[in-house]
Design a protein that fits this description.
Blueprint lengths: L2 H21 L5 H39 L5 H28 L11 E7 L3 H21 L3 E9 L5 E9 L3 H5 L4 E7 L10 E11 L13 E6 L15 E6 L4 E5 L5 H28 L15 E6 L4 E4 L4 E3 L2 H5 L4 H20 L1
Helix pairs in contact: 1-2, 2-3
């Protein structure tokens, strides 16, 4: 099917949905909701198709005007200028449409589970992990997403060993999925009297939040252990066995949760994280099966991949996947300019996918 035939098909389907919904012949309530969703998803694509076809028609009219020997010189000059602008605009509209027609990641619309863990570097790595967690919280605030800490294990001096958070809102996973990987920091610790630069790291995992319909977890596949919650240094936080450790036997994935005083709440949170990890593992397996001989670094979500360096002495942030460097370190950590990096990663991902289908 050619590009234009596909555009015809989309316009036809959009019109068909419009007719079905307006006539009330769309079936039951669930079918109507499904059609409404599809219609709204096609809306911006159909609008772009209209812009492209208007531009093409206008270019055709201008070409005839330019070729007509009876067109006066002044009008021909104006027509040539407008035609030249359209020769630039039409390919841009076509590329924009091609991007809109790329296969969508079904998880893009989902909320996300964010996991941040201190890596190599001791206390400095834990402090950096806390910096990253704050960066994502500020970024979420900027986008008016809900950011809720699910669990956190702190070091007592402002750092965190590991933490998880649920981020809810429109397009959360689509924006944050490129953040998975190893984040490295280079800076002089406050405790360093000699002014030497230390390098440490933290690991970030962004998992699409899975619904029960996405992942079926059988009770028989779970081993659930309860124990007494402990705080920093090993002291007991409470006197009941409220902490929960859930092991998914088929995959070996283990999730622990102890932040809530209620065993029931800890169990519910642990299951939510477990479901997200299983769903993420299934997505990774599918991605490997589709491209065994190629690993797409942008958006691969490889937690062992060093993706970014935050260099404090030079005030820069470098993303190694796309060779992008911004001398805006403080603003990135404030969540203000993280979008510049994510936009560039998204564009690179789209460019690679376009190259595969053209």
């Amino acid at each position: 099917m050619s590009f234009d035939e596909r555009l015809d098909q989309i316009v036809s389907r959009h019109q068909e949905l419009s007719n079905l919904m307006s006539s009330g012949e769309g079936g039951d309530a669930d079918q109507f909701v499904s059609m409404s969703k599809e219609f709204s998803e096609l809306d911006p694509i159909v609008a772009s198709i209209g812009q492209l076809r208007d531009a093409r028609n206008e270019a055709g009219d201008l070409a005839e005007l330019i070729a007509d020997p009876e067109t006066d010189a002044e009008m021909k000059t104006i027509a040539q200028e407008e035609f030249q602008e359209l020769t630039v605009r039409i390919p841009e509209l076509e590329k924009s449409l091609q991007i809109m027609l790329l296969p969508r990641d079904l998880a893009d619309d989902k909320n996300a589970i964010l996991e941040v863990r201190a890596g190599t570097g001791g206390d400095e790595a834990a402090l950096f992990a806390a910096d990253l967690l704050r960066m994502y919280q500020r970024y979420a605030d900027k986008h008016r997403w809900k950011f809720e800490i699910m669990s956190s294990s702190d070091t007592g001096i402002g750092g965190i060993k590991e933490a998880s958070a649920e981020i809810s809102g429109k397009g959360v996973f689509a924006r944050l999925k490129y953040e998975s990987g190893v984040h490295r920091v280079q800076r002089v610790p406050e405790t360093e009297s000699g002014g030497r630069i230390h390098t440490s790291a933290a690991t970030v995992a962004v998992l699409p939040e899975a619904e029960e319909v996405d992942v079926e977890i059988k009770d028989s596949d779970l081993r659930i252990d309860t124990y007494r919650a402990q705080g920093a240094g090993g002291q007991h936080v409470n006197t009941t066995d409220s902490a929960v450790r859930i092991t998914h036997l088929p995959t070996g994935i283990v999730v622990q949760q102890q932040d809530e005083k209620s065993q029931h709440k800890n169990r519910a949170k642990a299951l939510k994280i477990l479901r997200a990890r299983i769903y993420d593992a299934e997505r990774e397996a599918q991605a490997h099966a589709r491209a065994e001989d190629r690993r797409n670094q942008v958006g691969s979500g490889d937690r062992s991949e060093r993706i970014r360096t935050y260099n404090f002495p030079q005030g820069r942030v470098s993303d190694h996947r796309i060779n992008l460097t911004l001398h805006k370190l403080e603003r990135v950590l404030e969540g203000e300019t993280l979008d510049e990096i994510i936009d560039a990663l998204t564009a690179e991902d789209q460019a690679q996918k376009l190259a595969e289908v053209t």
